[in-house]
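Pasting as-is:
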Amino acid sequence: MIERPSTTRVLAIDPTTKGFAYVIFEGPEFLLEWGLSQARADAKNAKCVRGIEKLLARYSPDVVILEDYEGAGSHRRPRVRALIRSIEGLARRRGIRERSFSRRDIRRAFDILASPTKHSIATELAKRYPELAPRLPSVRKCYESEDERTNLFDAASLALTYFERHRRRSKLGSF
């Protein structure tokens, strides 16, 4: 029998003002699931954590990826920072590795782009994963709020940053 190499299952989560966006990858090539989850009214963080617990139970990821809210380029509100800390704690209690990347880390992972902005990264992701293309928001005007679908692409960019970082480390280790 031929054994297939194990593939890392990644759950990347990007908290939003209304809930959270998530993507689940099995390796960098296969986007397994994605979505936006909204939690209205009070106790928003508790509702988000319950939704994330369900994702962890259903998909059993090897690693949870989050934004490094203390990193360069991050501008997260206190409620979202608390939610990220809760998700980190949840992952640790379940024995799941967690990794965090800053906006700067994401831009470095997408350095193949001439100008790795949120929209250019999202456009690249829509090309790589056609199932996300219908959700690609248009370019935001300076006076517009960010489209909530952008968070879906932010979650995907976190996951791809993880895979890119892993690829670069593996490449360095092979010399």
